[in-house]
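hi support,

uploading two proteins for the ticket. first:
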Amino acid sequence: MSHDSGDCSDRICPFEFAWVDSPDKIGNHHKYAECAAKGICDRGSGECGCFPGYEGKACARTTCPNSCSGHGNCNYIEDLPFQNVPEDYINNNYDRSFLSQDPKLLTYDKWDLHKTRACICDPEWADIDCSKRMCPYGTDVMDIRNNMLVAAKYQTQQIFFEAGSTTASTLNGQTFALTFKSRLNETFSTWPIYYDTSATGFHDFMNDIEVALEGLPNQVIDDVEVHGSYGATPDSATVNITFVGSATQGPQHLLTVRSYLCGDGCTPKITGLELMPKSQNITEVTLSDFNSFECGRRGKCDYTSGMCSCFAGYTGASCNTITALV
């Protein structure tokens, strides 16, 4: 290491972008600083003694709380989902369809992209350090809507398919899959679904989507209704998926279309669909009148076991079954 003292006896520690500093006269900030201004240099060894919450050469990166408790990964901010709102979201009247995009496609390019880190928890684990087991979510059965004379609405998500090339052969007969993320952050993908917008096959296409979603493990989707329409060409279709089951009452994560090729050694094995870049985005076209709370807001979560302790008069995994009228 280099030395920087009157008699060249003191070592210099590594420099990195400063976490906090004062801007210069033209406004530049986050200049290079020894130990990133978040540590003290050991002049004997030339190594930084980082302050709590920082680590690495030159104290360049943040630590993750409790090392994510062994139930998650410590990721850089550039790898965290939805850190940078796409310009399309702003330019198109804040269209929520961007939420269905793969988070990895949403780039983050700020000064701390290789510095700031946070936990991404494993399924069924939550909190800033992934130390708490998640409890089931359910609707509050005692919640009163503004107008009880009107039938409650269920969440409906809409998928629009459109071929990515006018010269491509028909999409009919090709396969894709849908991915659902539960309120406990469990991710499940359906078996391959055959795309079919022919006059004789479209009804079966709708049924195939419904059966595939209801066939996901653990009955994470216990009941859905699927309807749709196909366009003037066989390469476009609109599909509406309504979550009507008790397990999926209230707002749910948007589905994701898996339209890329997944061949040998990949699961589910699908041919993929050559779609327009934004055509497979999923939007929420009907908001749910139901809510979705931890333990149905009728119990307390035991964050050690991930089980709800229901209040008197309520039972069920998410405390949304009334056992007695009080």
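and the second one:
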Amino acid sequence: MTVAADAPAPGPMRDPDPGSLPAEPWVGLLGADPRPWLLASDEPAARWIALTALLDRPDADSAVVSAHTAVLADPGTRALIDRIPTWGAPLALSGHDSALFAPSILGLLADMGVRAGDHPRIGATLDAMLEGRVVDAAGDERLATFATSRVTPGGAWSALLCDSHAIAETLVRYGRADDPRVVAALERMAADLADTAQGRAWPCIAWDGFRGPGRKADLCPQVTCEALRTFAWLPEGRRPAGLDAVARTVLGSWLRRGEEKPYMFGHGFGFKTVKWPGFWYNALRLLDTIGRYPAAWSDDAGRRAVAELAACLVAYNVDADGTVTPRSCSRGFEAYSFGQKKRPSAYATARVAQVLRPLGEITEEIRAVDVLALGSSKGGTGVPRPPRGWAAAAG
């Protein structure tokens, strides 16, 4: 937190008393209030999220400082930092949802409370990202990643939007938004916004003759959400016009899920059940994005879409006691609470709570959604498989 020079520095605040937590509407979506459990958790990242995102404690608060210090001292945090690959070295990615993709790891670390100055490896990676730029056939410069593939086994720089948008979000989130190279990347991002078959959004733009799957004129939900989140980290005055319309386009994909399916981006069981730590397009990531644009869901259609998405997030991921036991996990995170399926994860619970909180004003609409009666996605069976304990709690 930055304190103005003429403002008194905030004094220390005592650790919150779990018994005196403020009543908030979103808690009513769960079978129990998870905040006392999160504040008492031995996972420092979960405590940090609970303090900052659920209780609005400032950075200078003594409990927040303590949690942040504990996050940096945690062996799991250090292991994630060590996992950040050398930017610019050949890297075989299984996909942009891979933990080997540096923006994925840096995004996870940021979600846990880590900042740019907390470790030199992070700063060095950000510096390297700023140097990794390429010029396309039209003469436009884009942020790029260096990776190997079947087409380029020796490695090559790529600037597909799922590369450049993820890199831009990382740089903005870690405080590099004022760097001229990032400013140029944001201007390029705004210029790429287009009228797709679904509405105003970002499509998949070809790079060096290669374009991702799907129809050329369709929106890409992944890169659109990445761009929306990137601009959401900036003050409103630095955002391009029309982002609320873009957010409504993404919500429209959910509302039209029975008629059309964006290629590789369905809205069935795999979308509703978060694959932790949640690198890719799913109900959690979509709500995390859309929750930052409340004007996009101020109309009836938008409120219905967000209410249905939130109801599915709870139904498919939250147990009857208000905690989250992961149902799907990315490989390589078995040592973390969000990387196993046997017991509740404080980190996963904190993240779900963090995403639900901004939706508090439509709590009753979310509660009114009958998840079992929702129409299926195109190509799906329409038969939901809620997590343990949900059916009993819902009944």
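thanks. also noticed: The radius of gyration is 21 Å.
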